[in-house]
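Input structure tokens:
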């Protein structure tokens, strides 16, 4: 296998709008489906836990948010890695893409191991510090410990998936996620309830099933990666070049900071919901998976936008990169708007899919319907920052997150929820204010066009 790819990047070889759309949608649908499957895993686990009661919902909800919050830098770092790989593929430099992949693994895996050890040893104190009551801590601590042990496999899936997407292969990460979803759903059902053993494992059954799913998912994507051109003997060569580390940190650092700031803001609103009481937090934990469907679909489309933009800029076609961004943004609005219509029309039915608790269902109807009215904003709020990341302009995406979350969503949530006594509805109205801000800033930055001249 030569160090240089000799194949013309297909994303930069379109000659008409119709061809561009076809290339974009062929690239996008596996990413969209993959992210919907990620959301489905979240939904399945919530539905299983929802049958165990409000306390179990609260314990799983806060434990999951803690676990994902502490590894969010890896999510952002993967976004920066995608941008670097896409640029390299766009200019037919396979060796550079492999070099960046090796060094990204060194950083991502090392960070995850440290974080996992901390979560395993400090699970109970962390849950106490988050404001969970004694019963939630008792249920959530073992759940968090077991889930943390296998977080390293999730990191591997994220990093390998980013490399494959940057190279234009969105199907392999999608299949890996499909395998994980099947194992998680079937295994969770068998372990949570009294199916394969007396009494079942309860909440721990979800942790075990999800952990096994991550191990198998990593095994699949690792083997498939090794069979692709970009994974062919990718481990050969140096893993410790300072210049490569600096480049990864320059591009991936702001993306990692963006994800940390984003999930940090979300986590703060989770803590606000927790302080409203067990039933309110359980309701909040049910609304989250429902609204995650359009969110994850938009994120999937943003991956396709980032890949196409990165490859086109690598091929010195900024005009084509802009056209891909416009098409992806338009598609995201239509897609997210369709989800919103269902939320407005059938909120009670959607809530009942996750829990049988009548108090949780009734409390969630109004907030879910309100979210459905503005959820079309999920599209451009995710796709346009995805365009910026794909171009390597991760600093702008970081500032969008800081302003929208910490200057708008979090303060508005506090005022509406506690200052004006709006409770759970205030938290979700604040979400809408944050997304309006994200769309306005991201649109201005996209139209201004400086992202087309960023060097990676």
């Amino acid at each position: 296998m030569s160090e240089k790819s000799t194949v013309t990047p297909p994303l930069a070889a379109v000659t008409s709008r119709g061809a561009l759309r076809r290339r974009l949608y062929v690239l996008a649908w596996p990413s969209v489906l993959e992210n919907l499957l990620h959301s489905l895993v979240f939904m399945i686990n919530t539905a299983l836990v929802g049958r165990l009661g409000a306390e179990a919902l609260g314990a799983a909800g806060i434990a999951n948010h803690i676990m994902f919050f502490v590894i969010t830098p890896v999510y952002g770092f993967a976004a920066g890695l995608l941008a670097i790989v896409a640029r390299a593929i766009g200019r037919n430099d396979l060796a550079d893409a492999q070099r960046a992949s090796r060094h990204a693994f060194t950083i991502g895996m090392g960070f995850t191991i440290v974080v996992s050890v901390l979560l395993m040893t400090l699970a109970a104190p962390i849950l106490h510090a988050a404001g969970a009551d004694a019963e939630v801590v008792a249920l959530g601590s073992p759940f968090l410990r077991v889930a943390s042990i296998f977080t390293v496999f999730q990191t591997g899936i994220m990093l390998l998936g980013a490399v494959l997407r940057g190279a234009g292969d969105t199907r392999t990460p999608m299949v890996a996620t499909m395998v994980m979803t099947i194992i998680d759903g079937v295994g969770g059902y068998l372990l949570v309830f009294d199916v394969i053993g007396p009494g079942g494992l309860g909440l721990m059954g979800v942790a075990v099933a999800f952990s096994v799913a991550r191990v198998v998912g990593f095994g699949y994507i690792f083997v498939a990666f090794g069979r692709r051109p970009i994974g062919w003997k990718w481990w050969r060569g140096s893993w410790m070049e300072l210049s490569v580390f600096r480049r990864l940190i320059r591009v991936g650092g702001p993306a990692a900071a963006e994800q940390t700031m984003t999930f940090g803001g979300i986590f703060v609103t989770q803590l606000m919901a927790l302080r409203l009481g067990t039933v309110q937090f359980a309701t909040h934990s049910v609304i989250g998976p429902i609204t995650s469907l359009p969110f994850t679909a938009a994120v999937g489309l943003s991956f396709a936008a980032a890949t196409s933009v990165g490859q086109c800029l690598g091929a010195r076609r900024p005009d084509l990169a802009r056209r891909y961004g416009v098409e992806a943004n338009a598609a995201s609005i239509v897609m997210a708007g369709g989800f919103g219509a269902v939320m407005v029309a059938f909120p009670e039915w959607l809530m009942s899919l996750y829990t049988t608790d009548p108090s949780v269902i009734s409390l969630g109807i109004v907030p879910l319907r309100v979210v459905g009215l503005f959820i079309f904003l999920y599209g451009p709020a995710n796709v346009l920052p995805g365009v910026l990341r794909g171009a390597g302009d991760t600093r702008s995406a970081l500032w969008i997150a800081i302003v929208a979350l910490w200057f708008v969503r979090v303060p508005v949530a506090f005022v509406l929820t506690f200052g004006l006594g709006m409770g759970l509805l205030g938290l979700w109205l604040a979400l809408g204010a944050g997304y309006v801000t994200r769309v306005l800033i991201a649109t201005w930055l996209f139209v201004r066009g400086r992202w087309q001249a960023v060097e990676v």
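The chain has one domain: 28-453. Residues 28-453 form one domain.
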